[in-house]
Model the fold of this input.
Amino acid sequence: MASKEYAGKMLELDADGNLVNLNEWNEEVAKALAVEEGIESLNDRHWAVINYMRKEFTEKGDAPSIRKLTKESGVDTKELYALFPKGPAKKAARIAGLPKPKGCI
Amino acid sequence: MKKLVILGAGTAGTMMLNKLHPILNKDEWQITIVDQHETHYYQPGFLFIPFGIYTCKDVVKPKRDFFPSGTNVIKSEIEKIEPNENRVLLKSGQILGYDYLIVATGAKIDPTETEGMKEDLWHKNIFDFYTIEGACALANFFKHWEGGKLVINISEMPIKCPVAPLEFAFLADWYFTERGIRNKVEIHFVTPLPGAFTKPRASSILGDFLNKKNIKLTSDFNIARVDNETKKIISWDEQEVEFDVLVTIPTNKGDECIARSGIGDELNFIPTDKETLIAEGYKNIFVIGDATNLPSSKAGSVAHFQADILLENFMDVIEGLEPKAKFDGHANCFIESGFGKGILIDFNYDTEPLPGKFPLPGVGPFSLLEETKMNHYGKIMFRWMYWNFLLKGVELPIEANMSMAGKRL
Ligand SMILES: Cc1cc2nc3c(=O)[nH]c(=O)nc-3n(C[C@H](O)[C@H](O)[C@H](O)COP(=O)(O)OP(=O)(O)OC[C@H]3O[C@@H](n4cnc5c(N)ncnc54)[C@H](O)[C@@H]3O)c2cc1C
Done:
């Protein structure tokens, strides 16, 4: 398992590069992860998504799908892709310190 | 009399009926099955219709051929389930009370989920092959098509038979080669997934096949809309792909009756315990096949493995026991790869598709994650097995739970 330094702390990462320990996450760590995802600064809308994802994960044990996200977080699909270009569900989960959402097949 | 109601007489519902009918005591149980249609469609056959390999009549049979005598069959649309009242309301006005319910209402495409999809070009230059109408319309189109840009696009996951779009691409390569116009057809596979398939090893091997067959792959493409005038699909982050013919796999959803019943998720799939197959929050409702929200493939073979588990758990639950059998997410899919060959994958919730031999370790006759003629015969045989064994609930010589024997790590 790999470790990497974020916001001055060595943090353990899983195979997808997501945090292993949810409780090692904080806002500074989120900012560092965001930079890695090509997002230089997190604004209120980013935080709305990140906080919604963390809340859902704590309650349901799984990160929400994009569809659920847009229905419940108040951020529509278009904006979501503007905030987290390419894979919003994947990126937002990583920045929120959560494991990669279980893609169904 | 105890009442068992089965909703949906497709692959899974018919299979459960045929498994339960012989073993539930006729003096104690009344079994009712409800479906809106009289025709059973062999959906895996839809894949072959656009290429003229099957015609419409190769994929249909009357549903009644597969109902054991003495079954109460109702042809009606299901209005909704009232799980707290233990009853089902039908469009016909009839009300069915139940002691136990098995929901097998499947999944279907909804092209209206994507802006511009079901508009001017629908079934003119934009086709699906997940319905018989779409598959037949596409067959007619291909017959006279002289070539151009063929784009195959998956709108979003999950879809039923997640390998079918890849098979479509492989078959298109073969078909246009046979017709002598492969050099005039550009085949482009556009998917929201990070690669050709979800699971890493299969994704890289199947990606190599796309490459070898000169099929262009665009991944991480999440479609937002279709521009009917310029014939383009456009993603949420404004990437554009031009097409002359678009073969779409639109958003797949559970039936609206699930939404009306208030028991579905945002795609009308029913939250279901991934091991016991019991609906979350309802002790007397089982869910099987494409109607569930399980993170397993939505495929007939999967429904078949689930059926064995559901049967065991159903028998325990009606005796007042705890359900013991656990579904492991087992899926087994033949992937038609064109030129008379096929690829086979076998996997479950935890183990991704691996190379090896199947079902007999070292012997086969089928090869996992390799392209062979024998795998193609497996796929062709599947139709015969489907009508003659699977639907009738006859045991096949494959275990419900996946086996690691014969697989190479
Ligand atoms: C193109 C294509 C290729 C495929 N290839 C393969 C393959 O190679 N191998 C494989 O294993 N699987 C394959 N599949 C998937 C397979 O066909 C499905 O997974 C399987 O049919 C699921 O069975 P089911 O019983 O859950 O749903 P279905 O068989 O779809 O049955 C659902 C039934 O419920 C009825 N119903 C739904 N709602 C209502 C309502 N409100 N009122 C009344 N009746 C209702 C419907 O009429 C239908 O008869 C393929 C599917 C497609 C589309």
Observations:
- Chain B has a mean pLDDT of 95.
